[in-house]
């Protein structure tokens, strides 16, 4: 089947930029106009957006020249970062980080357009230019060519991709609920960490061994060899995804210089940089367990691995403890860095951990083992669904669906 003819986005959509009222003007904010930033899209669990972190007043809207986008517009982030896409379910305005698209309803379907843009992330990011930060201009967006089959075919493609996307979303929601179950089991097992005469407060380094990765330089990177662990590989949902990066060390260099930084199956690896403060004002890091299929794997800068001390501690307890106020409040007072927060072994050596008896920790391990088994299966299913979705996208926009 041949590809449909292509049309410039500027010929089938109106392109609308955004604006930001002065933050110092209190009466510009908290109004009845929903106001989106790229961060709102980055936090999305679905492809449609109806609520955002902030709203503005009509006066604030007028002050910055931002327009209210009708429901059904396609929001495209044009900087910091480029390429986030969503359809607004309610009328809203955006900040200047968008080049939003108002589809001409006789030419392009919003669902089709949003899926096509989502599939072209790398292409869109390569269109960015600028010295301080990359951005796509209105003129560049207007020249982008999109293949446009008939509206009926566009809607059929959008419907198929919507169905596949809903399956992926449901699987992610299931994984999120399973994470909440683990938290509930932790609270049920240990309650208030400071309560109970059997628990004791010890220095973290007396209960766990930990090691920070070496400072590997760019010139050492290779295309093959031993995979280098990166903070981007440690996801917020507690999964280690090595497909996120493609940096390796040569086998000879690992053997001669970095052998003692090779990760073992079962290690808990934690991001110590590229992390941020939550709304409660405390830092939240990310941790994941290393599995056999991840090996060989070498530590890298800004990552720390942990091992439990036999008969004293378990890593399952530690992973969940990293989510507690006890850890987060202590590390939040010690992190360094202005542009990017980070911590290291010297900070960890100052931390105290409430450590229950090993029997109680092992009981917790046993209780969550079944949950982790289900989580692992769900994660595998999600990976298959994500791969299916990408395949469907590729086929759809090549006229092979």
Features:
single chain, alpha+beta, Helix Hairpins, Adenine-n6-DNA-methyltransferase TaqI, Chain A, domain 2, 3 domains, four-stranded antiparallel β-sheet, 13 helices, about 20% strand, globular
Topology:
Elements: E1 6-8, H1 9-12, E2 13-17, E3 29-36, H2 38-42, E4 48-49, E5 54-56, H3 58-64, E6 74-78, E7 82-88, E8 92-94, E9 99-103, H4 110-119, H5 121-126, H6 138-143, E10 145-147, H7 151-190, E11 200-203, H8 204-207, E12 208-212, E13 226-228, E14 248-249, H9 251-258, E15 268-271, E16 273-277, E17 283-284, E18 287-289, E19 297-298, E20 303-308, H10 315-321, H11 325-332, E21 341-342, H12 345-348, E22 352-355, H13 358-396
Parallel strand pairs: 3-8, 4-7, 13-19
Antiparallel strand pairs: 1-10, 2-9, 3-5, 6-7, 11-22, 12-20, 13-14, 15-18, 15-20, 16-17, 16-21
Helix pairs in contact: 4-7, 7-13
């Amino acid at each position: 089947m041949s590809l449909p003819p292509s049309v410039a986005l500027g010929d089938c959509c109106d392109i609308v930029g955004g604006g930001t009222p002065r933050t110092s003007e209190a009466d510009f904010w908290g109004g009845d106009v929903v106001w989106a930033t790229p961060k709102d899209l980055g936090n999305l669990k679905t492809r449609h957006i109806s609520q955002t972190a902030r709203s503005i007043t009509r006066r604030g809207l007028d002050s910055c020249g931002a327009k209210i986008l009708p429901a059904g517009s396609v929001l495209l982030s044009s900087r910091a970062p480029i390429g986030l896409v969503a359809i607004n379910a309610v009328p809203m305005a955006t900040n200047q980080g968008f080049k939003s698209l108002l589809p001409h309803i006789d030419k392009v379907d919003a669902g089709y357009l949003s899926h096509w843009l989502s599939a072209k992330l790398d292409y869109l990011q390569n269109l960015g230019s600028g010295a301080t930060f990359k951005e796509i201009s209105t003129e560049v967006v207007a020249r982008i060519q999109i293949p446009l089959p008939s509206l009926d075919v566009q809607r059929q493609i959008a419907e198929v991709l919507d169905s596949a996307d809903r399956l992926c979303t449901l699987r992610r929601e299931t994984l999120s609920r399973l994470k909440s179950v683990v938290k509930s089991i932790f609270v049920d097992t240990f309650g208030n960490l400071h309560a109970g005469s059997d628990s004791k407060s010890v220095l973290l380094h007396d209960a766990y061994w930990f090691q920070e990765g070496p400072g590997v330089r760019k010139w050492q990177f290779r295309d093959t060899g031993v995979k280098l662990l990166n903070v981007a590989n440690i996801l917020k949902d507690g999964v280690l995804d090595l497909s996120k990066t493609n940096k390796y060390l040569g086998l000879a260099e690992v053997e001669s210089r970095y052998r003692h930084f090779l990760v073992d199956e079962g290690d808990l690896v934690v991001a110590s940089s590229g992390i941020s403060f939550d709304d409660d004002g405390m830092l939240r890091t990310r941790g994941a367990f290393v599995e056999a299929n991840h090996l060989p794997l070498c530590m890298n800068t800004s990552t720390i691995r942990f091992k439990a001390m036999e008969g004293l501690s378990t890593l399952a307890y530690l992973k969940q403890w990293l989510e507690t106020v006890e850890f987060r409040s202590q590390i939040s007072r010690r992190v360094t860095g202005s542009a990017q927060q980070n911590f290291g072994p010297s900070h960890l050596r100052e931390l105290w951990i409430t450590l229950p008896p090993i029997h109680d920790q092992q009981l917790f391990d046993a209780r969550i083992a079944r949950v982790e088994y289900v989580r692992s299966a769900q994660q595998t299913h999600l990976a298959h669904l994500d791969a299916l979705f990408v395949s469907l996208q590729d086929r759809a926009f090549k006229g092979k669906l």
